[in-house]
Amino acid sequence: MTLPALVLSLLLAFAGFAALALSLDRHHRAVFRTPVPRGRIGSLRAAGWSGLGLSFAAAIASAGWSFGPVQWIGSLTGAALAVVALIAYRPRSLRAAALAALPLAALTLPLALMR
To answer: N or C: which end of the chain has fewer CB within 10 A?
Structure first.
């Protein structure tokens, strides 16, 4: 396990959890001040689960099957705590943080997959 691999998994999980949170009406209202449009719920949920799946794939690719799932569970915990803290204390900044996580994850990808 390397630090870039852990950061990559954490960033992807954060973006996934943020998308899943924004698919709920309560959190969407807190961030955007409007109810979530019905057509957007499915795409936010698909993006959220895709982010979590990519986070799992990144953890397995970098640490293998022996330690990858353990790393992934740690990344999920950290990302979930970050999303919950942002929703509770700074809900308007969740969108910007989730959108910033994706380019950072793309920048971290080459470093994470180097051995």
So the answer is: C
